[in-house]
């Protein structure tokens, strides 16, 4: 199977996560000799922060000289981004080879009367094969948008389960209440599993704590009251937490410090299990963590920020960060909406900070046409413009911004176009 054929095949698979069943994953992995049974895992679920936390943990382990697999989603530019070892993406040749093996197993299952997999099921199967083939010491496994029913939950008890911040999202699949969402995320907690929980609201905490008690899971929670933020600027943040002094992270926003602390707590659990992790390797791992599209600075003059906030909780965290970093400044927002999200409410959160909104079209099946968003927000604001293209939005935002600050938010599925633009900025602006 050629690389382009593999990408074409995968991109045409279903995205319907209601199809996810553990039994399906057990069947397809069984046909591939159960590669996951040879691996150790750190399993991560949550609504916001799980990708950043996964990268922090992966880098701590890599800095400690472990061979670390990392499985995350979605990708920004290339499908290969989802499957990495020690921060190196799977090579095209390996991707093609493993996609071919997985497709063969799928074809056998279809002949037996089973349905084709979803994209998430197929890629999870690929990742587990690759990590086993490459003899990873440990794998950091991020769930997609679920927990209990997520394809990654085919694994047995992990070395540590991590639950990041939970908020309302994907309600069409998991229920309309925060309790329903929490129960789904808690599904990765298994019997006797060491578990790290991000501090949550009282009702969410109760669900997670009850799950830990019922599973006899050993629980560890960060205490953010022990966090001292020592420095924050556009390039880095420095903080102290418990006995850790002067820890540096380059991901911006207090929420990224909190995610780093969750990763630090997970590292402490691993130390108790015998992992050779030190204070220095924790510090190095956190400092060297990069995570594209999370308050990513594409340009400093003007300040041009790319952020993946695509639900209300993420947008609120972004708004808080922008107020903190740019007090008394007005910001131009470039916004592309996703179907199934409360775009109207998210824009309302950003509106008090906004000089203007540029609403953009983009090529994705769940993209909301900008005119549709404009109709919904016209009742409470008029400082917006519907753009015909992303390039138009970029050029107009740069040329009209009063305070020289532009922020992109609403989805991750158009990030490649922004990155491509700024990679060729000089020729584009001429």
Automatic annotation (TrEMBL):
EC number(s) per entry: 6.3.2.17
InterPro entries: Folylpolyglutamate_synth, Mur-like_cat_sf, Mur_ligase_C, Mur_ligase_C_dom_sf, Mur_ligase_cen
Transmembrane residue ranges: none
Stretches assigned to the Mur ligase central domain: 44-266
Keywords assigned by UniProt, alphabetized: ATP-binding, Ligase, Magnesium, Metal-binding, Nucleotide-binding
Gene3D superfamilies assigned: Mur ligase, C-terminal domain, Mur-like, catalytic domain
Annotated catalysed reactions: (6S)-5,6,7,8-tetrahydrofolyl-(gamma-L-Glu)(n) + L-glutamate + ATP = (6S)-5,6,7,8-tetrahydrofolyl-(gamma-L-Glu)(n+1) + ADP + phosphate + H(+)
Residues annotated as domain Mur ligase C-terminal: 293-411
NCBIfam families assigned: folC
Family: Belongs to the folylpolyglutamate synthase family.
Protein name: tetrahydrofolate synthase
Gene: folC
């Amino acid at each position: 199977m050629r690389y382009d054929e593999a990408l074409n095949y995968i991109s045409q698979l279903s995205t319907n996560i209601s199809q996810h069943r553990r039994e399906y994953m057990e069947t397809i992995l069984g046909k591939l000799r159960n590669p996951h049974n040879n691996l150790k895992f750190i399993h991560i679920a949550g609504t916001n922060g799980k990708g950043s936390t996964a990268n922090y943990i992966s880098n701590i382990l890599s800095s400690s000289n472990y061979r670390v697999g990392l499985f995350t989603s979605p990708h920004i530019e290339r499908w290969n981004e989802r499957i990495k070892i020690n921060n190196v993406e799977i090579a095209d040749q390996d991707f093609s080879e493993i996609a071919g093996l997985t497709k063969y197993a799928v074809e056998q299952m279809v002949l037996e009367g089973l349905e084709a997999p979803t994209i998430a099921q197929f890629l999870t199967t690929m990742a587990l094969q690759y990590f086993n083939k490459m003899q990873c010491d440990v794998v950091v496994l991020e769930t997609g948008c679920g927990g209990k029913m997520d394809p990654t939950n085919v694994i047995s008890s992990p070395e540590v389960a991590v639950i990041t911040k939970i908020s309302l999202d994907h309600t069409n699949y998991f229920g309309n209440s925060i309790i329903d969402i929490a129960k789904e995320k808690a599904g990765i907690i298994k019997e006797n599993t060491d578990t790290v929980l991000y501090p949550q609201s009282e009702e969410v905490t109760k669900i997670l704590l009850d799950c830990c008690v019922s599973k006899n899971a050993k629980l560890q929670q960060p205490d953010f009251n022990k966090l001292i933020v020592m420095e924050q600027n556009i390039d880095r943040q420095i903080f102290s937490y418990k006995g850790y002094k002067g820890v540096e992270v380059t991901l911006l926003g207090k929420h990224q410090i909190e995610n780093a602390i969750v990763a630090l707590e997970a590292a402490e659990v691993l130390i108790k299990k015998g992992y050779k992790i030190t204070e220095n390797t924790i510090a190095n791992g956190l400092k060297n963590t990069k995570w594209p599209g999370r308050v990513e600075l594409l340009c400093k003059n003007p300040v041009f920020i790319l952020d993946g906030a695509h639900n209300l909780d993420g947008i609120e965290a972004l708004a808080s960060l922008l107020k903190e970093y740019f007090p008394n400044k007005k910001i131009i927002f470039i916004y592309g909406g996703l179907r199934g999200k409360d775009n109207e409410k998210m824009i309302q959160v950003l509106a008090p900070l906004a000089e203007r909104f540029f609403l953009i079209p983009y090529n994705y099946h769940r993209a909301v046409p900008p005119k549709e968003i404009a109709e919904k927000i016209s009742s409470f604001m008029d400082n917006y413009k519907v753009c015909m293209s992303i390039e138009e939005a970029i050029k107009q935002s740069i040329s009209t911004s009063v305070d020289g600050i532009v922020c992109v938010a609403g989805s991750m599925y158009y990030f490649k176009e922004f990155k491509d633009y700024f990679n060729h900025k000089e020729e584009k602006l001429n």
